[in-house]
Write a structure and sequence with these properties.
The protein has a seven-stranded mixed β-sheet with strand order 15-16-17-14-13-19-20, sandwiched between helices. By secondary structure, the chain is α/β, with parallel strands linked by helices. The chain has 16 helices and 23 strands.
């Protein structure tokens, strides 16, 4: 399988390719008449024309998923795992192609895109442990002549609605676990960078996955609302902004579906005076400006405690100025563009509002122009000092390369700031004190905590998810929670009486004995 190429027109500009659905095991243009342009954010040029689905496409996709789920869910775990193992090898072999597609449509640098694929592969590998993970419990002779055992069965048809910032990793957080546990999975990827999902679909088919078990249906709110309300959908996984996460959770649960909806974030990193400040500055810069800040686990607020503040601002500012911004395909690029012109304008507006409200702009990336990529969607790394909790740049999830520094006097003040924030996705502390770290990790109302680690994304055998307005639903994504989400528990209490045994039937409530 070769990498997708974009041919040129007679005038040398990139031709626009049609991007179709993947329905019932094959590329499918669908019946929907609407189209949406897909851009290369580094050049500002349209490179694809995305087919948006309609009600007819949704119905065909879900009917195919229902048929596939009925047979796939009854297939032996051994055969399912054979597909998962082959899929794992194919994704690893096509890492460069997947990364190139991500960079072309999202903009992140190639090495970052390859890292995204690698983290997704970790969940594929976890899904390959399903024969062990799905083992139930057995109680022999729970009562005289009676045994009790439990096991888990797939939900049936599940949908994944995924964001633009991780077009490979987030689908791989969902689909492998859903498929390994016996479900059919319908992916509705972001309209902004959809092509990687189609390569994943081809790799699933090449691995031997039956048609209809993994499908890709492109669309906007019309398709999303259809997935949330259609009677054939049993569960919905979502990652995106908090307002949409709330809508997904409320709508889908009202229609009787199981839902996990991961929302936005405002992740804080506390820097204590006893921290290794060089290490902290290195990691703060990488966590704030990597992938242009378009990560739900990006550090967007540095909470500098006491004497650490001036040093943190100076060291992070120096590193921010040294970051090379440009096309993600260039070898010397550290940070690529944002996803859309609207994203760049939003970042510039929020930085301007912070400045007007009294924040100090230590490093200003608003007017950055990349030579040779003047039409690209670029904003440079930006550092704001003396940010107050009342400022819009603090209150809102910027989702851009902006680090806000909030100054506090004590660890207790830092914890108060974090706990007062409505989001609770990720947080971190940089310190040399075990006591401070333990106090912090126990008292913050945040779902994922790093100690001298800025982006505490859990390993695949754990589960990913925040608290408060960062998660709607009871179960986190992937790991053990992912298995529980995509399955239902069943308990069997059984007796096999001998033909000569006396009946013990009674009008009293049964008890063990």
């Amino acid at each position: 399988m070769t990498a997708q190429t974009t041919p040129e027109t007679a005038d040398g500009s990139a031709a626009v390719a049609a991007i179709t659905h993947w329905i019932d095991g094959d590329s499918d243009p669908g019946h929907g008449s609407r189209r949406q342009d897909v851009f290369n954010p580094a050049t500002g040029r349209a490179t694809g024309s995305l087919h948006l689905g309609d009600d007819q496409d949704l119905e065909r996709t879900l009917q195919a998923a229902r048929r596939a789920a009925d047979t796939w869910g009854e297939m032996s775990l051994a055969k399912r795992m054979g597909v998962l193992f082959r899929f794992r090898e194919l994704v690893a072999a096509h890492t460069d192609e997947l990364a190139a597609l991500v960079t072309a449509e999202h903009g992140k640098v190639l090495s970052d895109a390859a890292g995204e694929v690698a983290r997704g592969l970790e969940v594929v590998e976890y899904a390959c442990t399903m024969p062990q993970t799905l083992k139930g419990d057995y109680s022999d002779q729970a009562s005289t002549g009676i045994d009790v055992f439990s096991f888990r069965q797939p939900l049936g048809v599940v949908a994944g609605i995924t964001p633009f910032n991780f077009p490979v990793m987030v689908p791989l957080w969902m689909a492998p676990v859903a498929i390994a546990t016996g479900n059919a999975f319908v992916l509705k990827p972001s309209e902004r960078d959809p092509s990687a999902s189609l390569l994943l679909a081809k790799l699933w088919k090449q691995a031997g996955l039956p048609d209809g078990v993994f499908q890709v249906l492109h669309g906007d709110k019309e398709i999303v609302d259809g997935l949330l309300t259609h009677e054939l959908v049993d569960g919905v996984s979502f990652v995106g902004s908090t307002p949409i996460a709330k809508h997904v959770h409320e709508t889908a649960t009202a229609h009787g579906k199981r839902v996990q909806a991961l929302g936005g974030a405002k992740n804080h990193a506390v820097v204590m005076p006893d921290a290794d400040l060089e290490l902290a500055a290195d990691h703060l810069s990488a966590a704030a400006f990597g992938s242009a800040g378009e990560r739900c686990m990006a550090i967007s607020v540095a909470v500098a405690v006491g004497d650490a503040a001036d040093a943190v601002v100076e060291k992070v500012g120096r590193r921010a100025r040294d970051i090379t911004v440009g096309d993600g395909t260039a070898e010397d690029t550290d940070m690529g563009p944002l996803i859309t012109p609207a994203s760049t304008e939003r970042v510039r507006r929020l930085v301007g509002e912070a400045e007007a409200d009294g924040a100090a702009v230590v490093v200003d990336g608003r007017d950055l122009v990349v030579e040779g990529r003047e039409e690209g969607f670029f904003v440079g790394p930006t550092v704001l000092d003396r940010v107050q909790e009342s400022m819009s740049a603090y209150e809102q999830e910027i989702f851009g390369p902006v680090l806000a520094v909030v100054r506090v006097d004590t660890l207790e003040d830092a914890i108060r700031v974090i706990n007062a924030n409505p989001y609770g996705n990720g947080t971190a502390i940089f310190t040399g004190s075990g006591h401070a770290a333990r106090t912090f990790q126990r008292q913050v109302t945040v779902g994922m905590v790093g100690v001298n680690i800025p982006i505490p994304v859990p390993a695949a055998q754990h589960s990913f998810g925040g608290w408060k307005d960062s998660l709607f639903g009871d179960l986190h994504i992937y790991g053990p929670d992912g298995v529980r989400f995509y399955t239902r528990g069943k308990v069997v209490t059984q007796r096999w009486p001998h033909e000569n045994d006396e009946s013990t039937a009674s009008m009293n409530f049964p008890s063990t004995g």
